[in-house]
C-alpha cells in the first residue's frame, strides 16, 4: 500500500489548490469543505493505523521511493514506522477536530470563521496539515527540511491574521526564531550530506554515523539540534512560544502545541540520534541540562501567570523538557518515555487550549483573577473537563500524562553507557522537583478558576439563590452586576434588559405613541462586558464542543490505563534507532 502516504498528502494539498483555482464555486460550502477534506485525511490515517504490521513496527512500511529531482539525486522517499505512525494519526485527528470546532462552533458564536476571511482560513489549515504530515512521512533529509519549513508560513498567517490584539508582534517573533533555527539546521544537514554523499535517512540510520568523524558528528548534531530545539522549544530558545500561544486563535494554539512542537522532538528521534550517534553521546549531558532547567523554569513561570493561555503555553516548555530529558538518556526506557510524552502532550495540551478558547468565548477574558472562580458552580461540565485536563497534564497515574514523564525520569536513573550516571541522577532529582511544581501550578489555577464562589456572589458575600442555584434577581428580573448589591444596581436605562414572555414587543423610540419613558430597550451586545457574564444552561459545554473534545478525553484515558498500546509500537523502533549505542 505504498500509495497511502502519497494520498495522505495529496488530499489536503489538492483541497488547498482547489480553493485557489475555484474560489467562488466553493464559497457556499466552505464550512463543510474543510470538514470533509480533513475527515477524509483522518480516514486515511485510520486506514494506515489499521493496516500497519505491528509485528514489524521497527521496519519502514508503506514505503515510497521515486526520483524527485534526478539532477541533484534527490528522491521522494516516504515511509512510516512505529515512531512516526502515532504522530501522523495525532496530526490528522487534531486537524479534523479543529475543523469541527470551526464549522459548527462559529455558526453559534459568530467566531473567526464567520467574521474574517473564511476561504483563506481553510486554505491555511489545509496547507498546514500537508506540512505537518509530510514531516512525519519524509525519509530524505532535504524533503524533511522542506516539509519542516512549509508549516512556518501558514502558522505565521494563522497567528498574524486571526490572532489577538498583539498578533503582529507575536507572528513576527515566531517566524524570526523558527527561520533562524532552520538556517542553522540546514547547515547541519548539508554537513551530513557533504560527509556521506547521501540524504537518504534510511541509509544514514543504518550506517550509524560511519563515514563521519566524531568531531564532525558533534558539530552536525549541535547544528541540527539547535534548529530542532527552537521548534520544540527548549529553554532558552523558547521565548517565542508564550506570545505565539497567547495571541493565536484557538485552532492555532491547538495545532501549535499538539503537533508543531512535536516536529522538533521527532527530529531528534528520526535524524539526530540514529544518524549521529557519537555526537549524541557527546552532547547528551548538555541536552539533559537544558531539559531540566526548562522543566523547573516552565513550572515557576506558570506559577507567576495570570493569563490562562499563557500559563498553558509555559507548561509546554516544562513538558517538552521531560521529552528532551528522555532523549538525553539515550536508553530504550528514556526514549520510549519521550515518544509517549510527545503523544500525551499533544492530546492533553490540545484539549487544554480548546478549553481556554471556550472560557474566553464565554467570559471574553482568560485573566484568571478576572474570571473570579466558581466555574464548577456556574458551568459545571466545562469546569469538570478543565479539571480533568489539568490533572492529566500534571501527571496523575492512570492518565496519559503520567507514563511519559515517569519513564523519562526512570531513564535518567540509569542512562546509557558512556554517560555520567551521577549527573543524570541529579537531573532525575531536579526533574522530580519540576513534576511537583507542575502539580502546584495546575492546582493553583484550578483553585482560581474552578473552585470557590463565583465573582458576583463572592463580592456580595451573602447572595441569595433560588431553587435553580442561580443568583436571585430583583423584581424587574434583572440580576445585579458583579460587585454590586441589588440596591446599588444601575438604572434600567443603563442595563441590559432580557426579554421575558410577558414583555411588550420592542418598539423603536420615536414611533407613533412611543415616548422615552415607555420605550422597551432592545438588548444590545455592546452593553455586555466580561464582568457582566451570567452563565446559563446553554453556556455550558455545547454539542460541537462535546464532539470535538470527546475523542481527546477518550484517548487520554485509553493511553493512561493501557500504556502498552503505544509502548509496544515504539519499543521495536527505538531498539533499532539505538543500534549503534548498544
Q: What is the residue-averaged pLDDT?
A: 82
Distance between the termini: 33 Å
Please provide the count of β strands.
Answer: 2
**String of helices and strands:** HHHEEHHHHHHHHHHHHHHHHHHHHH
- Sheet-strand content, in percent, reads under 5%
Plain-language structure description:
The chain has one domain (3-451, 539-581). The chain is 67% helix and 3% strand. It has 24 helices and two strands. It has helices spanning 3-21, 23-26, 30-51, 85-109, 112-115, 118-137, 141-150, 152-162, 167-196, 201-207, 214-231, 240-247, 250-275, 277-303, 308-329, 332-363, 368-371, 375-378, 380-393, 400-413, 421-449, 455-460, 543-561, 564-577, and strands at residues 61-69, 74-80. A hairpin with a 4-residue loop joins strand 1 and strand 2 (74-80). The model is unreliable at 106-114 and 457-532 (pLDDT under 50).
SSE layout and pairing:
Layout: H1 3-21, H2 23-26, H3 30-51, E1 61-69, E2 74-80, H4 85-109, H5 112-115, H6 118-137, H7 141-150, H8 152-162, H9 167-196, H10 201-207, H11 214-231, H12 240-247, H13 250-275, H14 277-303, H15 308-329, H16 332-363, H17 368-371, H18 375-378, H19 380-393, H20 400-413, H21 421-449, H22 455-460, H23 543-561, H24 564-577
Antiparallel strand pairs: 1-2
Helix pairs in contact: 1-3, 1-6, 3-4, 3-6, 4-6, 4-13, 4-16, 4-23, 6-7, 6-8, 7-9, 8-9, 9-11, 9-12, 10-13, 11-13, 11-14, 12-15, 13-15, 13-16, 14-15, 14-21, 15-16, 15-20, 15-21, 16-19, 16-20, 16-23, 16-24, 19-21, 20-21, 20-23
